[in-house]
Amino acid sequence: MTPDLPARPASARVLRALGAALLPLLAGGCLSMAPDYQRPAAPVPTTYEQAPTADAETPAAATVNWRDYYTAPILQDLIDSALRNNRDLRTALLRVEEARALYGIQRADQFPTIGVQADGSRARVPGDLNLTRQPQISSQYQVGVGMASWELDFWGRVRSLKDAALQNYLASDAAARAATLSLITQVADGYLTLRELDERLALTRATIASRAESLRIFKRRFEVGAISRLDLTQVETLWQQATALGADLEQSRAAQAHALALLAGGPLALPPAGARLDDAAVMRDLPAGLPSDLLASRPDIVAAEHRLKAANANIGAARAAFFPSITLTGAYGTASAELDGLFDSGSRAWSFAPKLSLPIFDAGRRSAALDLAETRRDQAVAGYEKAIQSAFRDVSDALSARHWLAEQVEVLRATVAAQGERARLAQLRYDHGASPYLEVLDAQRDLLAAQQKLVQTRRALLSSRVGLYAALGGGTRPPALTETPTPSATPADAAPPAPVRGQ
Q1: Are 214 and 343 in the same domain?
Q2: d(CA 193, CA 259)
Q3: What value does the mean pLDDT take over residues 281-310?
Q4: How many C-beta atoms surround the C-beta of residue 263 within 10 A?
Q5: For the chain, how many structural domains are there in total?
Q6: How far apart are the C-alpha atoms of 101 and 308, rounded to whole Å?
Q7: CA 57, CA 360: separation in Å to the nearest integer?
Q8: Contact 350, 333 (CB under 8 A)
Q9: Do residues 85 and 213 both lie within one domain?
Q10: Residues 6 or more apart from 196 whose CB is under 8 A from it?
Q11: Contact 284/71 with Cβ under 8 angstroms?
Q12: Is the pLDDT score of 23 beyond 50?
């Protein structure tokens, strides 16, 4: 006759049954209550105005590294110094590290926290507090491995929060790339402005020297009675105007050098600049492409889309809060009343404490949380669409500026030539007594103004090309970073992608 086997404890049977029920769910993953993500349609036209036809072999701006676009060696050194030393960019990169750490914290909530526990206690109870009427001293020692409260993510709440943290991290990474591109743009534009001031100063200094010589000659002629005091004061006025313009340009150049030093993150070591900036040697030309290219090229648009995905994931977490929450707490180890009996036979101890929680009445808190998540998603949609519209305008403005400023430069070059000839003829007429010196004064004043305007417009044309490179997301999409990981393509146990450090 077969002897009867001892009955299993009820708790062991419950544990085995619960484990058998949970195993398929854990193996099959969890549900997701987040709505399916659909990229909003771009609220902009499909083509740009003022966009010339591009060569099919010309690379897109987003794939052109800044070193290949900005070809001037001095400018390259300035940009490199700014990328290494600029404090604003350093702060932006540290925000990426902060978002990466927050994602790691949220990702860890998907897994149980297991730790070693050891505790001991010794207590004395007076005799009048127990039935034996004798003082009692008791001891308890326990060592084990325990699992803290771990939520079984049946409804995808924890996973949705992890996905939102991942998207926020990717958004901060894209924002850092946008900050990098913005810094490069500011340095390039600041350098061009500095060179513009250098060239205007060179013109003004030459004019001051020429007018100072004219003033010396007219003083001698006045002393011998060859001219009137009116002619002398007119020449002196012309010299003073040029001198005042030179002082103003000197102050502007000093302020621009200080601003450029702040962007570069340290003192500037610029070699003496030439009198004229070689426009063709600063940067290359770029095609505009199509507005749809901006969705993957502009880092600010990429960041806005990641923020939209994060808001979408938060809706899933808010929806999951309406379903029961199940958490597990347990421990396994050994316990004894004597320290040397911890590992003796029969000292095994364990505990298992599942917990199910479902609020019945919360005064509408969960409904309000869902409404909040959906409203923030709608705000993110509006922000994403606004980012696309702003990017389209930036490109359109840069293309328009490049087109019309090029025409203005040609007109101003012809104007400077005409004003130069006018000044020469006015001087000849005055020398032959055919006109008063006021005509010479006006002609020379207009010539200097035209020369200054030409330099300013040439710099504005170069700045429009700097702006076009930035508006097209220049250098922010190298081949290795074309695809951006998404929560659906990122395994739960995969490490997050490394942040981009710069161009």
Answers
A1: no
A2: 11
A3: 83
A4: 22
A5: 2
A6: 20
A7: 64
A8: yes
A9: yes
A10: 277, 455, 456, 458, 459
A11: yes
A12: no
Domain co-membership, 66 together with 211: yes
340-374 b/e (C-beta count within 10 Å ≥ 16 → b): eebeeeebeebebeeeeeeeeeeeeeeeebbeebb
> Could you tell me if residue 13 is inside a domain?
no
Q: Do residue 226 and residue 332 come from a single domain? A: no
> DSSP letters of 350-406?
EEEEEEEE--S--TTHHHHHHHHHHHHHHHHHHHHHHHHHHHHHHHHHHHHHHHHHH
Cα(204)–Cα(251) distance, rounded to whole angstroms? 14
DSSP SS3 for 304: helix
Q: Are residues 440 and 337 in the same domain?
A: no
Residue 16 has pLDDT above 80, yes or no: no
CB neighbourhood size of 73 (10 A): 10
Q: What is the pTM of this model?
A: 0.80
- Do 385 and 375 belong to one domain? yes
Q: Which strands, in side-by-side order, build the sheet including 114-125?
A: 114-125, 136-152, 325-336, 348-357
- Co-location of 300 and 352 in the same domain: no
317, pLDDT greater than 60: yes
Predicted local distance difference test score (pLDDT) of residue 7:
44
- Strand-pair partners of 332: 145, 350
- What is the DSSP code string of 269-300? -PPPPPSS--GGGTB-------GGGHHHH-HH
